[in-house]
Specification:
By secondary structure, the protein is an alpha/beta fold. It has 14 helices and 23 strands.
């Protein structure tokens, strides 16, 4: 079931990313209107039919008198599912959403039921794996991506998706670029992990990643607040900056809701008089901004304990609580999306959790006969706008595989050399006091900050003084010093020298009779690279990362054949 191919990862076509209504949707999926019309009358009919039983006559009459609404959940904080969703809080205020006027693709009411009237038996079970905090090349990146995400495929043959809510502080920008190139959604967690963030933290994050990871800021459309602390002003910023969704608000698992828009506010109960427990205004309304509910994982059968992020278990105990939550509150209920909200640090604390997560992913496909799709949060919002059942899911634009375009010698997060390193020999290492990162682009003079997310680039000059690994004291021997590394002598046929562990060109390359090419022997390095991966100057061979939904020309104009500069807008 594992898929080892890294070059099959993808994301949805740009036209669908831009919320363009797909042609196939209008031809076959008309049930969003039925939800406001036919489904309501059918449910009323069921109640009236049950009214023939003496004990249910009163309930049938009451449903008609109250406008035909059918109570779905009982007790405090209950919803009335049709034709209006009414939610009363302890302070008397409430969430009211009329499904007759709030319709996809631009508006969706909070509900436990699938959108557009799709029958529960015909709706896919969506799973959302999310990670958060810095992306570190040698630490968090392999734990989360290499050891989990890249190993699995969805029922349609496409690689599974995941979303990483990144901070830029302590992150490696090239690793962020690799994640994006292989289909992992990059979303915002601010620059410095600041609660109740201001615009500099949120927009600065997108600008820095655009400049040094090559990801256009228009592709970063999701947000999760650090410590899950945000207020009304945070939502207003997300709306003004054209984010698609927020994923920061806890929702009780007994009301596992599908994503919904904030046209009618948040569908959660909290005490507005206590700013510590209710930092946001439940009655705030932001048209078209989606909320991805953060639901909990129950740690006990009696629901007396739960955890939102990083369950405090491992091994068989962790697998049991994941399986129980999946079956009881998602798959065997209304199939609302289930999230596993993780930090890579949680995986590092006990690496057996990686095996458990992999086991759980395989188990969900087995127990559901392959009706589970692991997708990004962005893909889930795309599907919510134009929902379709299992009978149509493989044709849905958000679920398609688009092979990436890879050019040899291009620093794009995809190129893999014989030692399995991405963009080996093409990336630049930027070093600051207490912090360093790799990038395909020119290093900035200073560390990116919320106030200056894209500092001026390093100026050309004494390149040896800007290299961590200085020029060898005995020179390069059979080569010359350039771009913080020794460029070795190589003949037109390819015969020449390779770099040794001291950075000098002293090791002759060898002819490989299988590939019919000259290659560097084990323990040596290709010409023009440093054994310490410390080139701080731009590599003139680098070119712009090639994404399907934007071109080199509209990012950099006429500079496409020049050395890469940070993408500023």
């Amino acid at each position: 079931m594992y898929s080892s191919s890294l070059r099959k990862r993808f994301r949805a076509p740009a036209t669908f990313d831009d919320y363009a209504a797909p042609q196939w949707y209008s031809n076959h999926n008309t049930r969003s209107d039925e939800y406001a019309k036919g489904v309501w009358f059918r449910r009323v009919g069921y109640i009236l039919a049950l009214g023939t039983v003496a004990g249910c006559v009163y309930l049938g009459i009451l449903a008609v008198v109250s406008g035909g609404s059918t109570a779905v959940d009982g007790g405090p904080g209950s919803f009335v599912d049709t034709p209006k969703l009414n939610f009363k809080r302890s302070d008397g205020t409430g969430y009211i959403c009329d499904v007759a006027t709030c319709k996809t693709p631009n508006c969706t009411c909070a509900s436990r039921y699938p959108p557009a009237g799709i029958e529960v038996a015909n709706v896919p079970q969506f799973m959302v794996l999310t990670f958060e905090d810095p992306v570190m090349e040698a630490v968090t990146f392999p734990q989360a991506y290499e050891n989990i995400v890249r190993l699995h495929s969805n029922p349609n043959g496409c690689p599974i998706g995941a979303t990483w809510f990144t901070t830029t502080d302590n992150s490696d920008y090239h690793s962020i670029q690799v994640l994006d190139a292989h289909g992992v959604e990059i979303a915002s967690h601010t620059m410095t992990h600041a609660p109740n963030p201001n615009i500099s933290e949120i927009e600065g994050h997108r600008l820095a990643i655009q400049a040094y990871a090559g990801i256009p800021k228009s592709k970063i459309v999701g947000f999760r607040a650090p410590f899950l602390k945000l207020d009304k002003e945070t939502f207003a910023l997300l709306k003004s900056l054209d984010f698609w969704y927020d994923a920061s608000v806890r929702h009780p698992l007994q009301h596992a809701y599908w994503p919904y828009t904030l046209d009618h506010g948040l569908a959660v109960s909290c005490d507005k008089s206590d700013s510590a427990t209710c930092p946001y205004d439940p009655d705030m309304k932001f048209e078209g901004l989606w909320e991805l509910p953060l639901t909990e994982i129950y740690l006990s059968k009696d629901k007396s304990a739960s955890r939102l992020v990083d369950p405090p278990f491992s091994g068989e105990q962790l697998l049991t609580v994941l399986q129980s939550t999946f079956k009881r509150h998602h798959w065997e209920d209304k199939r609302a999306p289930m999230g596993i909200w993780m930090t890579p640090a949680w995986l590092l604390q006990d690496e057996s959790r990686i095996e458990t997560i992999n086991h759980f992913i395989e188990w969900t496909q087995q127990v559901t006969n392959k009706q589970v799709y692991y997708i990004t949060a962005k893909q889930l919002i795309q599907w919510m706008r134009y929902p379709s059942g299992l009978d149509r899911i493989k044709a849905h634009p958000a679920m398609q595989c688009v092979p990436p375009k890879v050019k040899p010698g291009q620093c794009n997060g995809m190129t893999s050399h014989r030692r399995g390193k991405y963009d080996e020999g093409l990336i630049n290492n930027c070093v600051f006091d207490g912090y360093a990162f790799n990038t395909c682009f020119v290093c900035p003079k200073r560390k990116p900050t919320p106030d200056v997310p894209v500092p001026p680039p390093q100026a050309a000059g004494n390149e040896s003084s800007r290299c961590i690994s200085p020029k060898p004291s005995n020179g390069c021997m059979y080569g010359s010093w350039k771009n913080c590394a020794c460029v070795c002598q190589i003949s037109a046929s390819g015969q020449g020298y390779c770099v040794d562990t001291k950075g000098m060109c002293t090791i002759p390359n060898e002819f490989d009779t299988i590939t019919n090419k000259w290659q560097c022997p084990e323990g040596s390095f290709p010409s023009g690279t440093s054994p310490y991966k410390v080139s701080l100057t731009v590599n003139a061979q680098n070119s712009v990362p090639n994404y399907d939904d934007y071109t080199e020309d509209n990012i950099r104009g006429s500079g496409r054949n020049q050395a890469q500069q940070p993408i500023l807008n």
